[in-house]
């Protein structure tokens, strides 16, 4: 199968980024660009860092009435939340649109920071979007953010390594199987286990794949049931304990993130990697060529379908914006299937809708079976609990499950007690 080169991918991205940069330059001098004496509205969209996709669709959605310009948030999701929350709480009108990580959507909506989306727009977005994307953007029965892209993790593997290990990747594999295969054959497994949100994502996926959950009745807020102390929680702890104590654990396991895990995978010791869809753009052509394979996320329990992590971005409109009507119209444009496809082409962050996957350039950049795997994995994905308390729950998980080498059978019970105390106000993080 012919695969497009990374050079071609970069040329396409550079053309789009250059066009977007021209749009931003124009926005700096609105009077010169608008042709109407400088009355054109500027909508400011606070975006998460990427390789130019959001700038490109911002240009596409600028109109004769308004220009959409971008401001980049910090790389770390937690820092993004802090910066936005402080300014939104102060009623800062300079934020019109914002790219929101799913776990913070409920918190912002519950606090009244997000503008109400008209019901007819909610209906169109719900019909357009994957169920998981809609669920991640919903709070209290209302869609509160515009689903933009939906990310999921798959199991990436080195074909040469699994051939040496004798592992049949045409069948579902378990965490136990890949840890054993890597340990017995000199391989290292790339995961996200630093003390950050990515580690909470991994823990949540392992527990969900074993049939459990971190919390139940999330809509009850502080009165939600903390359900991590369960058989599923013990299964997840056992997987982390096994990897951390095995030869398959990379030396930087306790500080590993998406980037370092990718580097481990691309090294001579690379074997398996759980990571997001953009890995194909980073390693799937020039760097590893035909040696990169992909499969469904590993099973926590043999015979039980895995629940890969769900990630992505929804676009929120600030309730404090002076131009909410224009911002709501711009947001619907930004998440159109075509613009989702353009963003995916440039960034590797895949669309939040099936129609977005039909964007023609994606068929040139990704093998058809990989595009199907991404969509199947989104359908099976385990979102983090939609609750205003997720930030506290995630920080509590990181406090009680880190470092990975400390995890054992007692960890789920310790974390249940800690999380319960935190969200009920009995102690501080």
TrEMBL record:
Any one Gene Ontology molecular-function term assigned to this protein's record: maltose binding
One GO-annotated biological process of the protein: maltose transport
Extent of the signal sequence: 1-31
InterPro entries the UniProt entry points to: SBP
Domain of life where this protein originates: Bacteria
Keywords: Signal, Transport
Gene Ontology cellular component list: ATP-binding cassette (ABC) transporter complex, substrate-binding subunit-containing
Protein family per UniProt: Belongs to the bacterial solute-binding protein 1 family.
Name this protein carries in UniProt: ABC transporter substrate-binding protein
Origin species: Nocardioides currus
High-level lineage: Bacteria, Bacillati, Actinomycetota, Actinomycetes, Propionibacteriales
């Amino acid at each position: 199968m012919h695969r497009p080169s990374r050079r071609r991918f970069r040329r396409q991205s550079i053309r789009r980024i250059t066009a977007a940069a021209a749009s931003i330059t124009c926005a700096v001098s609105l009077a010169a660009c608008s042709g109407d004496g400088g009355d054109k509205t500027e909508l400011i969209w606070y975006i998460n860092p990427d390789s130019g996709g959001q700038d490109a669709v911002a240009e596409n959605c600028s109109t004769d009435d308004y220009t959409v310009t971008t401001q980049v948030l910090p790389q770390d999701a937690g820092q993004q939340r802090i910066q936005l929350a402080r300014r939104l709480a102060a009623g800062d009108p300079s934020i019109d649109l914002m790219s929101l990580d799913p776990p913070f959507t409920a918190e912002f909506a519950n606090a009244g920071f997000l503008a109400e989306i008209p019901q007819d727009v909610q209906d169109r977005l719900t019909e357009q979007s994957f169920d998981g994307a809609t669920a991640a953007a919903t709070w209290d029965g209302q869609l509160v953010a515009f689903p933009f892209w939906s990310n999921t993790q798959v199991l990436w593997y080195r074909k040469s390594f699994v051939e040496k290990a004798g592992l049949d990747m045409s069948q579902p594999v378990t965490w136990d199987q890949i840890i054993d295969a890597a340990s017995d054959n000199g391989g290292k497994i790339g995961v996200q286990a630093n003390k950050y949100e990515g580690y909470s994502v991994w823990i949540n996926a392992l527990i969900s794949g074993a049939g459990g959950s971190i919390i139940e009745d999330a809509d009850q807020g502080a009165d939600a049931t903390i359900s991590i102390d369960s058989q599923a929680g013990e299964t997840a702890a056992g997987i982390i304990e096994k990897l951390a104590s095995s030869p398959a654990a990379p030396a930087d396991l306790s500080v590993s993130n998406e980037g370092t895990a990718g580097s481990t995978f691309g090294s001579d010791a690379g074997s398996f990697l759980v990571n997001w869809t953009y890995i194909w753009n980073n390693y799937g052509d020039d760097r590893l060529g035909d040696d990169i394979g992909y499969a469904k996320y590993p099973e926590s329990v043999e015979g039980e379908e895995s629940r890969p992590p769900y990630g992505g971005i929804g676009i929120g409109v600030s309730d404090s914006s002076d131009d909410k009507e224009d911002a709501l119209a711009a947001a619907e444009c930004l998440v159109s299937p075509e613009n989702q496809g353009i963003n995916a082409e440039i960034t590797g962050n895949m669309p939040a809708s099936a129609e977005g996957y039909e964007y023609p350039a994606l068929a040139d950049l990704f093998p058809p079976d990989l595009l199907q795997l991404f969509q199947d994995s989104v359908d099976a994905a385990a979102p983090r609990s939609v609750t205003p308390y997720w930030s506290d729950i995630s920080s509590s998980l990181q406090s009680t499950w880190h470092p990975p080498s400390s995890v054992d059978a007692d960890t789920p019970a310790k974390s249940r007690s800690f999380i319960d105390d935190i969200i009920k106000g009995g102690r501080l993080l």
